[in-house]
Amino acid sequence: TDGRLFTFKYVEADRYKAQVFLDSLESSEVVQFAEPNYIYQASAVPNDPLYPRQWHLKAIDMEKAWTRADGEGAVVAVIDTGVAAGLPDLAQTRFVRGYDFVNDDDDATDDQGHGSHVAGTVAQSTNNREGAAGVAYRARIMPIKVLNRYGSGTAADVAEGIKLAADRGANVINLSLGGGADSALLRDAVGYARRKGVVLVCAAGNANTPRSGYPAMYGDCLSVSAFGPDRSRAFYSSYGQGVDIGAPGGDKRRDGEAGGVLQNTVTPEGKSVYASYQGTSMAAPHVAGVAALLYSHGLHDPALIRKALLGSARPVADDIRNEHGNGQLNAAQALDLVESPHVYWRGGFSWLVPLSTVLVGTILGLVLRLVGGRPVNQIACALGFVVMGLGFFPLEALGTFWGPEGLLALLASPVPQWDRVLLGGWLNPILHTVLLPGLLSVLLSGSSWGRSLAVGAWIGTAALLLVEGTLFFVPFYIPLIPNTPLIYLAQEPYARGFLIANGLACLIIAGITRHSGD
């Protein structure tokens, strides 16, 4: 209070405990401010001659991010058409052993150009007075070739590539590829890599449709949409269901060649070129590169890396179609969040599922006259509906970077969707049936209040399953066990039918339970 300034060194590895200590100091009457003594530095502008044309790196605030992280220590697997490691602007980029699943050998050289361009965005040699810059230029690249010279490949090769990358120590996997078909084999490989501690980043797709393609649609992947120099969604980019974050992908239709993503790549004839590409394939490696920066900055938990990327994204106002997911990628803010963790507000598209469930459940309850009785019974019915159909979903909008995120996620989710929290994005078919509300109904059938709570649970489950089966489908997790009926649920049409059938069954039983006490 007398204006004197004190600085001291406090050694504490746990950031949360350090923040508690600072808060306790600031609460003292004799202390005006207590905060970390932050280090301020000039922005880092690389000397690469083409960097001024790389609007996409400026759009994610790379100059501030480079003062704190460069990707050192991170390994990023580029699962693509391979990488031409001999390109002049990859001369200082470091590589680890990869593999070519197209030709079944160890030479994962690019003969198409797509993979080299992607690798350049991740880790183009930077500050070498040559060409362009890359996001995490000190990261090591693991080239995995699964696409041929025409840019196509099989789900089996992609799945093998994912597992190999995970087994060989990749910290981040970039998948600038995809399709419209759900593959149980590919889904299993994604889950395998996630359990091995890998961050998986995928292109959302270039179909301009309101849902991501696969594998971006899988809950264990970060699905990346694309925006152009004006920060609006690129005309080709998929959006809506599944999209987690937006990143620069280019929009040459609006801005010409200058509107694309510029990196060093190779022509099919083997010639080195600096080319301007566009696509969600170009957006994804920006996110993969920032994930590598976070890893090199000491954040090794893939769940926390995901949280830092999404929690620091630049919000986009009125994004009712979920064109940018949690927002647009910002590398500097992601590092800020790691260095100064806090509670943040995220909200967004994920609210559409519970809000749709409320609408469907309310309509069903009123039209079929399933809600009534004394106020205490109505309260019990509402509680059952919330627990089984909604969860306390506003809590989902609060993220605590170092806090009890799992507990918040469970409380924010309806009970049938706890599997998404515990299994990392997948649905377990057993929980999405009449089983859970049936058990609750048996346990609570002895009283009028209990029956009302059970009715609410039946209605909530019915509404949730109908919404999941129609508007917001998420694939089931089905173990690859051949010759079992469950294997059919790995296919979307069967899974949707399964959800709708169980939703209708819950609705019928709700009516029976409601009138059983009359």
Give the tags.
518 residues, alpha/beta, Rossmann fold, 2 domains, 8-stranded parallel β-sheet, two-stranded antiparallel ribbon, 17 helices, 12 strands, 38% helix, 10% strand
Description:
- The protein is α/β, with parallel strands linked by helices and 518 residues long.
- It has two domains: 51-340, Peptidase S8/S53 domain (Rossmann fold, 3-Layer(aba) Sandwich); 349-516, no CATH class.
- The chain is built from 17 helices and twelve strands.
- It has helices at residues 15-26, 55-58, 62-65, 114-123, 155-167, 184-195, 252-255, 280-296, 302-311, 331-339, 352-367, 375-390, 405-412, 418-422, 435-444, 448-470, 492-516, and strands at 75-80, 94-95, 99-100, 140-145, 172-175, 199-203, 221-227, 245-248, 261-266, 272-277, 343-345, 398-400.
- Strands 1, 2, 3, 4, 5, 6, 7 and 8 form an eight-stranded parallel β-sheet that branches.
- Strand 9 and strand 10 (272-277) form a beta hairpin.
- Helix 4 (114-123) packs parallel to helix 8, helix 12 packs parallel to helix 16 (448-470) and helix 16 packs antiparallel against helix 17 (492-516).
- Mean pLDDT is 85; it is low at 343-348.
Summed up, the domain count is 2
Described by the principal axes of the CA atoms, the overall outline is globular
CATH fold field value of the largest domain: Rossmann fold
Helix content: 25-40%
Fourth-level CATH superfamily of the largest domain: Peptidase S8/S53 domain
Proportion of residues in extended strands: 5-15%
Distance between the termini: 71 Å
Radius of gyration: 25 Å
Mean pLDDT: 85
Q: How many H/I helical runs?
A: 17
Look at the structure and give the CATH class of the largest domain. Answer: Alpha Beta
The secondary-structure element order is HHHEEEHEHEHEEEHEEHHHEHHEHHHHH
Count of individual beta strands: 12
Derived structural class:
alpha/beta
